[in-house]
Amino acid sequence: MKKSLIFILLLSFCGGASESQQTSQQSESNETSQQSESNETSQQSESNKVTEKKEELIDHMTLVDYPAKLYFAGDIPTEVHGRVEYAFSIIQEKLGKYPVEIYFVGTDESEKDKLSNLFCTNREETGNFDSNDLRFNFQDFDDCMNFIDERYFSEYLRSGLETEQRGFPASGNKGHNGQFEQRYHLLVWSKPIGFEVENGEGYNIEVRGVFHEYWHVFQMAHMDFYNCSDRDVRSTCDFDFDSIDYLVGGTWLQEGTAVFKEIMILEEQIKKGNYKNNQGDIFQEFNNQYFDGQRAMEQCPGMSIRDIKYSDPCSQAVYGWGAWAAAYLTHKVNDPYVFENVYYPELKNLGDPELVFLNTFGLTRDEFFADFDLWIYLSEEERKTVIPTVEESTGRLYYP
Asked: Which one, of 291, 287, 306, lies nearest residue 373 by Cα?
């Protein structure tokens, strides 16, 4: 497929420099050309050194000064773009900007192919083609196209079609899809149907999806998967794939905190007036998660959510009961913000999830689950005390 396809106007990108900004930069460049040739050469050399140094330092853990890069297939309505961008701007303001690319696949096959082409053009421009280093890079453009289409975009297109056919109110599939070894975070969405009608039935579901998936960005940005002899020089670093599961600390923690945060952050934003409340009572929302987890656990009798993985038939429990586990832990230390302010920053510093868990919550994982696996079966009235209160107008979370 020819790379010229990326210039088709139906594809849209949010987060880059505008044409007027580029024109301004060109004008500034023309003005500096009036300086002497020797000075220009010297400055250019120094600029290149700074750029090279900066590029060496950027990886999936690095805070950057630009917003998430959003790419939409051509069949996704343009009014959806701004709504998506707004949701991402809110969560990035809260959790920080990291190198993220998000691709929104629609339900049109040809537009999906154009989006694949754009993805691979981006990979080529960022230096992810290297036939001698296929563990971390693609061999060439065709290799990249096959990867993104077979592994991701075609699946998300099918999910979008299924969502439409079943009449679901929001996107049926979305996810953080790694790519840490290529030094950024890849998120992929099936068609965000709920964003097509502002404040419709699926609108806040889509917003929560944005908050959920970006929480995964935040989590992973606090996990160091590199072994380096010199952190400032990427060529001295090896990516340790085996460390990912260890640092994540369990599917229950990864997904449970994401569900807890998506609910609470949306509630904060509703109180601040940034979104309308169509999700109902927050305690009912947590009860919905409880019953979803309870139904899932029936598929794995005798198991604890501690041991559940995505491949297990009861995997939904790590979302439902995992959210309650996250609430239990925040209540234990009387801090609804403990994960973003303490746990993950300490994990980035120490790289030892067991020690960080003990330091943050005052008990080991074994001790926590000895309590939680019994507590989760208590009455609704006894359980609801772990849900934070949200202050009116400010959205501040607290425990009375």
From this structure: 306
**CA nearest 290: which of 251, 254, 267, 263?**
263
- Of 132-136, 182-186, 231-235, minimum mean pLDDT range: 231-235
pLDDT (mean) for 80-84: 98
Average pLDDT value for residue range 353-376: 98
> Which 8-state DSSP code applies to residue 5?
G
Chain segment 164-180, per-residue pLDDT in tens = 999 999 998 999 999 99
> CA-to-CA distance for 210 and 192, rounded, in angstroms?
10
Residue for token pair 């590199």: 226
CB atoms within 10 A of CB 20: 8
- Cα gap 298→316, rounded to integer Å: 11
Q: State the Cα–Cα distance between residues 221 and 187, nearest whole angstrom.
A: 14
Among the listed residues 171, 170, 176, 201, the one whose alpha carbon sits nearest the alpha carbon of residue 188: 176
Residues 6+ apart with CB under 8 A from 292: 316, 317, 319, 320
**Residue 48 binned pLDDT confidence (cut-offs 50, 70, 90):** very low
pTM of the predicted model as reported, rounded to 2 decimal places: 0.85
Instruction: Report the distance separating Cα 134 and Cα 400, nearest Å.
Output: 54
Span of 76-85, 101-110, 235-244, 306-315 with lowest mean pLDDT: 235-244
Length of the chain in residues, anyone?
Answer: 400
Instruction: Please give the mean pLDDT across all residues of the chain.
Output: 87
With beta carbons less than 8 A apart as the criterion, state whether 365 and 357 touch: yes
- Are residues 188 and 103 in contact, defined by beta-carbon separation less than 8 angstroms? yes
3-class SS of residue 15: coil
Rounded Cα gap, residues 220 and 181, in angstroms: 12
Q: CA-CA distance, 374 to 107, in Å (whole number)? A: 45
Q: Please, are residues 196 and 77 in contact by the beta-carbon 8 Å criterion?
A: yes
Short-list 304, 295, 286, CA closest to 383: 286
From 353, 369, 208, select the one nearest 289 (Cα to Cα): 208
